[in-house]
Write a structure and sequence with these properties.
Length: 277
């Protein structure tokens, strides 16, 4: 299946969706603290999307082939949960780390998909380092986005940085094309060989969302059919942005007032949303 090239109208719709997705994360940030349950965070996000934004939570009742419908509005992945943690009665406590993965659907049908890591109280040195390295991995992948580069360049940059730090890259889950469809071509691997894979072309929109484990990369699936944990119970971290390939480089679409800035080594040119090659 070919990778879709978005029209100017699509791109404008995706900018709006991306900003709205990021604004949900801004909204929920003050509530992410010791004593809150993941279910309460889900409830707050759900109400904000529906009542304030007029968006729809994309994960709610999402059911790819072979899956039962996902039962909540967001994903809350705590500590050794790699991805797709289902919100519930789990109480967040001091020292935990959690990834909140938010995808909204706008009234025009566009998806805005992003995630951030949060520290609960004071994190351990290990958790802080893993979270920071994973953030750098995402941005090093984003920095490879420009016409003429290849998807393998993104994965290679991420894998190199993660493994140099002594961490491992989850292979079973990856970034993806996105637009009016939640998950579409291409699959954006977070490992790989530079110069391989499809060539990047202006108008492509996809997510870059590396999942990095402090221990080994192997995974285990929980009985709910969704939650994925590290097999060795080591910590895992993930960050996600939605990226457009422009004529000269990239534009990060999931940007809001509270979006964390890029790492200093990426350069100030991308402190907003855009960068030239």
């Amino acid at each position: 299946m070919a990778i879709s090239i978005k029209t100017p109208e699509d791109i404008e719709g995706m900018r709006i969706a991306g900003r709205l997705g990021a604004e949900v994360l801004d909204y929920i940030t003050p509530f992410v603290k010791p004593g809150v349950t993941t279910g309460e965070l889900d409830r707050l996000c759900h109400e904000y999307m529906v009542n304030v934004q007029g968006t729809v939570p994309a994960p709610l009742n999402y059911a790819p082939p072979g899956y039962t419908p996902y039962p909540k509005a967001i994903c809350t992945s705590v500590n050794d949960v790699i991805c797709h943690g289902i919100p519930g009665d789990k109480v967040l406590k001091n020292g935990d780390v959690v990834n909140l993965d938010i995808t909204v659907i706008t009234k025009d049908g566009y998806h805005g998909d992003n995630s951030r890591m949060f520290y609960i109280g004071e994190p351990s040195i290990l958790a802080r380092r893993l979270t920071e390295i994973t953030y750098e991995c995402m941005w090093l992948g984003i920095a490879q986005v420009k016409p003429g580069n290849h998807f393998g360049d993104i994965g290679h940059a991420i894998q190199l940085h993660a493994e140099k730090a002594g961490y491992s890259v989850v292979r079973e889950f990856c970034g993806h094309g996105i637009g009016k469809v939640f998950h579409e071509e291409p699959q954006v691997l977070h490992y790989g060989k530079a110069g391989t894979g499809e060539e990047l072309k202006p108008g492509m929109i996809f997510t870059i969302e590396p999942m990095i484990n402090a221990g080994r990369r192997e995974i285990r699936e929980m009985g709910d059919g969704w939650t994925i944990k590290t097999k060795d119970r080591s910590l895992s971290a993930q960050w996600e942005h939605m990226v457009l390939v422009t004529e000269t480089g990239y534009e990060v679409l999931t940007v809001s007032a509270g979006t964390p800035p890029p790492p200093a080594f990426i350069g100030n040119s991308v402190a907003g949303a855009k960068a030239a090659a």
